[in-house]
From TrEMBL:
Keywords: Membrane, Transmembrane, Transmembrane helix. This is DUF58 domain-containing protein. InterPro entries: DUF58 (IPR002881). Pfam families: DUF58. Residues 285-438 form the DUF58 domain.
């Protein structure tokens, strides 16, 4: 037998345990018989006799730990094989029996035992009928699935309020007719059932379905399961036919238009006070200095003054938007207000991406992907609000550190955020960066107010977002 077999490993473990136990016993006996005593004798007065006690005993916990380790080494391979057999062969068989089936089976066993114990022929007959029903039910679920199923969603990304339409195409891929059956389609926490008629070979049956999208969510559609069951539903066999598909229900967004975002400069960027010898924003003329680019010489002025003059430019920068979206639900009055805040942030971010602006979106749980509008809306769909200790003020401080080169900053907050908190948010913004706070309050009239250098925009409806942004640009 190979030295790597479980029996040899168990024998080696037992030998090591036996050697360890023997060594401990010998050491204890030696300590008890040693006339010089142990380290504890250092506190004994000279001339005082040392007390010789009984031999020490092994602690039961050590013995049990060694025994458990040996048993684990011996039983681990066997347990792994038993678990694999259970999951591969036994559990699929037991999972076929429904709750009603287990009740009927338990009743049949009880009736048969009662009939044997007290001689009740009626109980035996009832038990035999129950067992016969089980045998007949097996005939309804055996056999291989001969369905070819294709799950097709017309769109895997829709907005709130839009219906998601899909279809299930089922074909008979066998050479014989198939009896009527049923298909199950899990949609989130619900399950839709499609009944299939009797299908001839190569026949295709198609069903259309519509998924309502009342709220923002990621809905798992599928996998499609073919279900075989007996008429009494004692046994139910499910066979997976497709893979699950994620349906993204994006938050509702509105188009702002370039006029609504007038505070963002066009491709020329936002001018700064730093001067440059080559840029787009013209500032003034200055004397020529050796090394200047001759393309920037202003020849008309040079001819009039009789000396070389070159153009001086203001250094420009491209607009970089940063959005701070608070997901602390304690700062919102209701769930509808929180959803509106997500829609506001998504609308502003989507507009910035469509205008090819640099964008960063940050929440208390970290940044969101902003490479494309699709990535942004996907991450907006996954956002989950919760009560937390971090407030909009803490998020504003993190934003100034995470996006130091931002030129325009948005604070999207709820109606419970006070003016003092907004003033603190604005104080965390570096000088020269334009900051705006969008305060969401359903039903409120669109308005604009100023708190120091911070522009506060109140939005009562998502359709009012473009209006308040035009007021901010005025």
């Amino acid at each position: 037998m190979s030295s790597s077999t479980p029996l040899n490993r168990a024998a080696d473990s037992l030998k090591r345990a036996k050697s360890a136990l023997g060594g401990k016993i010998r050491s204890l006996r030696g300590s008890a018989n040693d006339p010089r005593g142990s380290g504890n004798d250092s506190g004994r007065r000279p001339g005082q006799a040392r007390k010789v006690g009984k031999p020490g005993k092994l602690h039961p916990a050590a013995v049990w730990a060694e025994a458990a380790g040996t048993a684990g080494d011996f039983l681990s391979p066997a347990w792994t094989k038993v678990r694999d057999v259970w999951l591969r062969y036994v559990w699929p068989v037991l999972a076929v029996v429904s709750l009603l089936g287990w009740v009927v089976l338990a009743a049949a066993i009880g009736l048969w035992w009662a009939g044997q114990a007290w001689g009740w022929q009626e109980a035996k007959s009832a038990a035999m009928v129950a067992f016969l029903l089980f045998l007949l039910a097996i005939g309804f679920i055996v056999g291989r699935s001969a369905y070819g199923v294709v799950l097709d969603l017309a769109r895997t990304r829709v907005a709130v309020g839009d219906d998601a339409v899909g279809s299930i195409a089922v074909s008979n891929v066998s050479t014989r007719p198939l009896l009527p059956a049923a298909l199950e389609l899990p949609v989130g926490s619900n399950t839709a059932v499609f009944h299939l008629p009797r299908m001839k070979p190569a026949q295709v049956h198609e069903d259309l379905f519509t998924i309502p999208t009342a709220r923002r969510a990621v809905i798992v559609v599928g996998p499609v399961r073919s279900v075989r069951a007996d008429p009494l539903h004692l046994l139910r066999r499910r066979v997976m036919c497709t893979d699950p598909v994620d349906l993204f229900v994006h938050p509702r967004t509105v188009s702002l238009g370039s006029s609504a975002a007038g505070f963002i400069r066009d491709l020329e960027g936002m001018p700064t006070t730093e001067l440059s010898s080559a840029d787009v924003s013209f500032h003034a003329l200055r004397d020529y200095v050796p090394g200047d680019d001759r393309r920037h010489i202003h020849w008309k002025t040079t001819a009039r003054t009789n000396k070389l003059m070159v153009r001086q430019f203001e250094e420009t920068r491209r607009a970089h938007l940063a959005i701070s979206l608070s997901i602390n639900t304690d700062e919102y009055e209701s769930e509808a207000e929180f959803e509106m805040a997500i829609s506001v942030a998504a609308s502003i971010g989507r507009q910035a991406i469509s205008e090819q602006r640099d964008l960063d979106v940050l929440t208390q749980k970290g940044p969101l992907r902003c490479e494309t509008g699709r990535n942004l809306l996907d991450d907006m769909t996954r956002v989950v609000g919760a009560p937390m200790r971090k407030t909009a003020v803490d998020l504003a401080r993190n934003l100034s550190d995470a996006v130091p080169n931002a030129s325009v900053v948005f604070f999207v907050v709820g109606s419970h955020v006070t003016a003092t908190q907004l003033r603190t948010c604005a104080a965390s913004v570096p000088p020269g960066v334009r900051s705006l706070a969008v305060r969401v309050q359903p039903g409120a009239a669109p308005s604009r107010a100023n708190i120091a250098d911070l522009t506060v925009l109140t939005v009562g409806d998502l359709d009012d977002l473009a209006i308040v942004l035009r007021k901010a640009a005025a």
